[in-house]
Each structure stands twice: as structure tokens, then as C-alpha cells.
Amino acid sequence: QVQLVESGGGLVQAGESLTLSCAASGRILWVNNMAWYRQAPGKQRELVATITRGNSTNYTDSVKGRFTISRNNAKNTVNLQMSSLKPEDTAVYYCNADVRGSYISGDRPYWGQGTQVTVSS
To answer: DSSP code of 112?
Structure first.
């Protein structure tokens, strides 16, 4: 019905930058809130950044000033620009979106498959 696909993950050295992308496709009237989560091995999934359809953003304290979330409503995509990366940023990053697919129902949450980000020291 709706699919979210992340891309852009990879291996970088500490201090470098990386940009993740997520594209939503399928039965979509519009996308409301979008977010990026991450999960490191043995740890709980944590919310990294959120963005509303009107481009209001929020970030977890550990990434403020380093990460920037943005979106393109026409393309139903959301990006996460990551700079000054640290080894502790290493995790699988997941895209999340609240999608309106029908006029007779409300939003439904969808998740991407995840993309690995590894930051070496």
C-alpha cells in the first residue's frame, strides 16, 4: 500500500558528513509528520528528528546543530543532512511517516527498512 525507502547510508570517518534520503510511494494523498529514528545494536530505537508538513522541526539534543531534517512535499521525500558525525552516531537509521491514503480514514504510520550509518574514529 505505502512503502518508505531509505538511502544514503554508508561508512564515513568522524567529522565527515552524510545525507540520508527517504521516499514514500504508493497510495498517498499527502504525508503529514515525517521523522528519522535510529537504533544502535543493543539499544532502544530513538527519535532523532521530526518535521511537520509545514516544516516545523525538532531534534534530539545529541544532534542539534549537526543534523538538519528537510522535506519535499511534492515528492513525498524527507532528508537528513548529518555533519560533524561522531562514532556514537553509528546506527541503523529509519524513516517514519504519517501518511494519509484515503479521505475516509486518518493518518497511518509507516516505516522504512532502515539504512546503516557507520562512523569510524
So the answer is: B
Answer yes or no: are the C-beta atoms of 40 and 109 closer than 8 Å.
Answer: no
Cell numbers representing residue 41 in the block: 545494536
Nearest of 90, 95, 92 to residue 16 by alpha carbon: 90
Show the beta-strand stretches assigned E in the chain.
2-7, 10-13, 18-26, 30-39, 46-51, 57-59, 67-72, 77-82, 91-100, 108-111, 115-120
Pick out the chain residues at pLDDT < 70: none
CB contact set of 41 (below 8 Å; sequence gap of 6+): none
CA distance 108 to 121: 39
Average pLDDT taken over every residue of the chain? 97
pLDDT tens digits for range 51-84: 999 999 999 999 999 999 999 999 999 999 999 9
